[in-house]
């Protein structure tokens, strides 16, 4: 564990880009949406306003961890860090960062609720489909998708280091083909009703925390296997 912590510190050399920048982008997007809500209210509109701009944080995390592998991986290996240790430290950073951000988002959700949507009936964090009554469950709902996208970003970065740009294109085309194939199968077998029941019969906690956590574990495993043969 001590070795993983030491290697994790290497990834946090540029702490601003890894830790602070996603939060800064989140706050900028929040302020922008509060400004829009203010303008809407100033025009006499009193309708509740909801936004999906929270996705900016998740996209930033995806990009940030792609850069983790494309920039920090060669640096760490150059310092004689083993691939296994580097990936373990990366997983430690990803899980820790996702949980910390999940706690932060939960706190901001409570602030949003207490201030009646930042004073303008704005739903930025307290989106109905994300809301949980329990603080721990709420944190998991925010954190699990962050882990999913982060590990996916790590895997994309490793694929790029292993096979270059053509590997990333091949992966993208392959995943797109699988998605199109699944949609065709669902349509040809008339399974849309079953798909709808899957989403309606499962709780938001399962859909937004449980399944994303399983997919994050899958991408983490794929990333680990690919890292073993990645070229710095």
Folded structure, characterized:
This protein is mostly helical and 232 residues long. It is built from eight helices and two strands. Strands 1-2 form a two-stranded parallel sheet. Helix 1 packs across helix 4 and helix 6 packs across helix 8. The longest helix is centred in the C-terminal third of the chain and has 54 residues. It starts with a helix and ends in a 5-residue tail after the last helix. The model has no long low-confidence stretch (mean pLDDT 89).
Secondary structure layout plus pairing:
Layout: H1 2-11, H2 15-42, E1 49-50, H3 55-78, H4 83-114, H5 117-121, E2 122-123, H6 135-188, H7 192-201, H8 204-227
Parallel strand pairs: 1-2
Supply the key terms.
about 230 residues; mainly alpha; two-stranded parallel ribbon; 8 helices; globular
Task: Provide a brief overview of the structure.
By secondary structure, the protein is mostly helical. The protein contains eight helices and two strands; from the N terminus they run ααβαααβααα.
Percent in strands? under 5%
DSSP E strands, number = 2
Question: What is the makeup of the main sheet?
Answer: 2 strands, parallel
Rg value: 20 Å
Q: What sequence of helices (H) and strands (E) makes up the elements? A: HHEHHHEHHH
Give me the side-by-side strand order of the main sheet. 1-2
